[in-house]
Inverse folding.
């Protein structure tokens, strides 16, 4: 009975993310992230990545993503960026707009938005890693 309930919750979360992501058709940019976390209760996380916008790659820094509760974990994620009208809109604090979901195969997904209305939909590409946004959200900035 518990496994059926758990499957229903995962299904509802997956539907919620799918519905949130279906509102947007073509992404304005793509994003790839990698990083890690050292955690024992409260964790320290770091990351970097690449924002691909209008055919050019821009290095970015990321802080505030938790990828595990205990130990050292490596994060690999990629996704789509919507609502990016200029590079100036990318920098900021991103907070959750849809509940995270565990995907088939052990990955996870998260959808987040910043103060400029830029939405990032991420999917972990590392099996068994759960993407969790930090309590204050996720800070992402283009490295200058």
């Amino acid at each position: 009975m518990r496994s059926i309930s758990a499957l229903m919750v995962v299904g509802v979360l997956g539907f919620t993310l799918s519905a949130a992501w279906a509102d947007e058709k073509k992404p304005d940019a793509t994003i790839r992230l990698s990083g890690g976390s050292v955690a024992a209760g409260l964790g320290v996380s770091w990351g970097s990545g690449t924002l691909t916008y209008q055919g050019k790659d821009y290095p970015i820094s990321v802080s505030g993503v938790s990828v595990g509760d205990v130990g050292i974990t490596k994060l690999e994620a990629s996704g789509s960026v919507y609502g990016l009208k200029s590079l100036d809109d990318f920098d900021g604090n991103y907070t959750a707009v849809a509940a995270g979901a565990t995907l088939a195969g052990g990955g996870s997904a998260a959808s987040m938005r910043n103060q400029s209305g830029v939405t990032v939909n991420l999917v972990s590409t590392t099996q068994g890693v759960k993407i969790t946004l930090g309590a204050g959200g996720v800070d992402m900035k283009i490295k200058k």
Observations:
- The chain has a mean pLDDT of 73.
